[in-house]
Structure prediction request, 447 residues.
Amino acid sequence: MTAPETLPASLTDPESLRERALEALTTARDRTALLTSCVEEPELTAQHSPLMSPLVWDLAHIGNQEELWLLRAVAGRAAMRPEIDGLYDAFEHSRAERPSLPLLPPTEARRYAAEVRGRALDVLESTAFQGTRLTEAGFAFGMIAQHEQQHDETMLITHQLRKGPAALTAPDPAPAPLFTGPAEVLVPGGPFVMGTSTEPWALDNERPAHRRMVPSFFIDTTPVTNAAYQAFIEEGGYGDRRWWTAEGWDHIRAHDIEAPLFWRREGGQWLRRRFGVTEVVPPDEPVLHVCWYEADAYARWAGRRLPTEAEWEKAARHDPASDRSTRYPWGDADPTPEHANLGQRHLRPAPAGSCPAGASPLGVRQLIGDVWEWTSSDLEPYPGFVAFPYREYSEVFFGPEYKVLRGGSFAVDPVACRGTFRNWDYPIRRQIFSGFRTARDAGTGSS
Prediction:
């Protein structure tokens, strides 16, 4: 038998949850303000890539979603600006067409978002954290904090895609000694509890908790590094069809892809552009900005494979000693900087092997933070899945078109990152802060 989930008292006490919601909302808004104030107005309204919205769209969309869910759905208030709902409906207009819409200009978008926030904080103070599914444990407030932080990550991606000098700065992660531990870790086979039924702000696709059998497997101790990935490039990995799926091979040939996004070769070394600065690719950092096809091809080249989503979560959450699933690899406590590189405190991954305090009981490191990790799994519902509070958050994305990513990145805030959190994207996506680690069956040889 696997032990049931447990939660710290701070996640069950209503007043503690109210304080947590206030902190999460405030942290998110502070980050939004920085991301939208560090460039001039023309750069807020410009579209820096057809893959991304103008920054000013994200700003007003954040306010509109907060109004929809906290002021209208929770508090039952009348719409403040009903005429703009369609403009900021992510399903009504694609990112490529949003610059042509009559969007709120930056000053008005800021004013609108600020007015919504002032009213939302009044609602937070007066709402009982019980009664409905939206208000139980403050779910709606946690959902909105997560939504804003997810857009903060999206806006950071836009900053990475924009041309011109750096607009954002942050200290680098602390140097770490070269990791000399074991290259891989054995995760014993058996059942574990996947997903959650108790995490108060978990989103619908993380639910419900269910028992999952996973055979024994080996998983990389750290994410794949730039140095390791360069070996794949130097040995002709991008030119050898053996390592690629048919779709992946067609994609890299059609788009002349020969290295991770933002990399270029110059003078016998690899350089990359990172937030407006060109630098030598650091060999010991986890590789970044690779699509699923690239991650899958590297794994095949290395004689390994990408882990399944269930394998990744078992490596990240199952504690063999207690036979239970924890909230994070290190246990149930919220992340600190010693545990994981999160929250845009740094604008790059930490060196492989960093944050030993955040390791799993089996010794797997950096499962949370640094880079989103591609898995081999399609996005599918868990047994007993129920869409809540709206189908468009998860249900419309289920199917083979999307691959699951796990673990968060340096750009993710802790409120939107936990051992059960599921991200997904098309297998061609590279602008996201994506990397990977590899796995192998316990009965196969090591790379």
Q: What stands out?
A: The two ends are 34 Å apart (CA to CA). The chain has a mean pLDDT of 96. The first strand starts at residue 184 and ends at 187.
